[in-house]
Design goal:
With 189 residues, the protein is of the alpha+beta class. 22% of the residues lie in helices and 29% in strands. The protein has a single domain, classed as STM4215-like. The longest helix is centred in the middle third of the chain and has 16 residues.
């Protein structure tokens, strides 16, 4: 499912920047020094650096009626995960880098959700629209830690958090409860 989110993000950026004739490379590689040194044309790098369970997770059950009135299926609601991307621009000249970074920010900020037209078929069935948070201040507190672990120089970067639902749970089928009985006994003193 994560690779499908990558593909949706790729489609959005190619369409909205726009990127034509392969004038700009768009990749999802880990931006280590030995990798980035080989990039020979302007590059937008969308590096997935963290995956976390969303704080707003709801632990609920969905009930669906099956077989008319004979049974119901109980299914836990999906888990929600936040995919934390760091987006950087790699060019020879700072002016080009800043220009492409600005275009990328503007393209992503046009949308609060990943637009359906960019979603691969596997993401079309998400239970809710897929939210995107761009450049949220608390999302990336210390960029120098990440860059030093990648053995690379500190760069201007844009945080992008995309939240998706994943459901690892299997539905449980059970007979439908059609009525119940309450019995009361006198209180013995």
């Amino acid at each position: 499912m994560i690779n499908e989110v990558d593909e949706a993000l790729r489609r959005l950026l190619i369409q909205e920047l726009p990127i034509k004739n392969n004038e700009v490379e768009l990749n999802f590689n880990q931006p280590k020094r030995e990798v980035t040194s080989r990039w020979n044309k302007p590059t937008i790098n969308c590096y997935l650096h963290d995956v976390r369970q969303n704080k707003l997770r709801q632990k609920q059950w969905e009930v669906t009626n099956r077989n008319g009135n004979e049974s119901v299926a109980l299914k836990r609601t999906p888990l929600r995960f936040d995919l934390h991307y760091i987006i950087t621009i790699w060019t020879e000249e700072p002016d080009d880098e800043h220009y492409l970074l600005t275009r990328t920010i503007l393209a992503l900020c046009r949308y609060a959700y990943l637009p359906k037209e960019f979603l691969p078929e596997s993401l079309q069935a998400q239970p809710n629209p897929i939210p995107m948070l761009i450049a949220e201040p608390e999302e990336f507190l210390n960029p120098s830690d990440l860059w030093s672990s990648l053995d690379n120089e500190l760069r201007p970067s844009l945080s992008c958090v995309i939240s998706i639902a994943l459901n690892p749970f299997v539905a449980i089928e059970t007979p439908l409860v059609k009525g119940f009985e309450i019995q009361m006994e006198p209180k013995v003193s």
